[in-house]
Write a structure and sequence with these properties.
It is a single chain. By secondary structure, the protein is α/β, with parallel strands linked by helices. It has a domain of about 45 residues: 3-Layer(aba) Sandwich (Rossmann fold), CATH 3.40.50. It is about 40% helix and about 25% strand. The protein contains 4 helices and 5 strands; from the N terminus they run βαβαβαββα. The protein has a 5-stranded parallel beta sheet, with helices on both faces. β1, α1 and β2 form a beta-alpha-beta unit. α2 runs parallel beside α3. The longest helix has 13 residues.
Amino acid sequence: MARILLAEDDTTMLEMVQHALSNDGHSIVVAHDGQEALDLLAGAGAAFDVMLTDIHMPVVDGIELAGKAVVMMPKLKVLLMSADTDINIPAKLQPHIAQVLSKPLALDKLRAAVKAAVG
């Protein structure tokens, strides 16, 4: 199973996603905002297969987080989450984005996206 970094500032959403993916056997490391996620990515021994992040978060948003994360870990697969339908993903980041998931999340779509990203 995958080691997943989950960055989400909404506690209810974070707990729901963490619970669902943990039940699927994945190892989940949580961050409550983009800066905390960057700190985890920079930590000694940090290795993640997938990063699942909300786009709209305080401090560091999900787009900026994804851009910095793929520089640190070029093979990292990124899944973005957003309630917005109009999302502007920079061209240089697009090859690293496995999928953009719409909120509210459908757990079957979340699980399928993670499975596809893991390969």
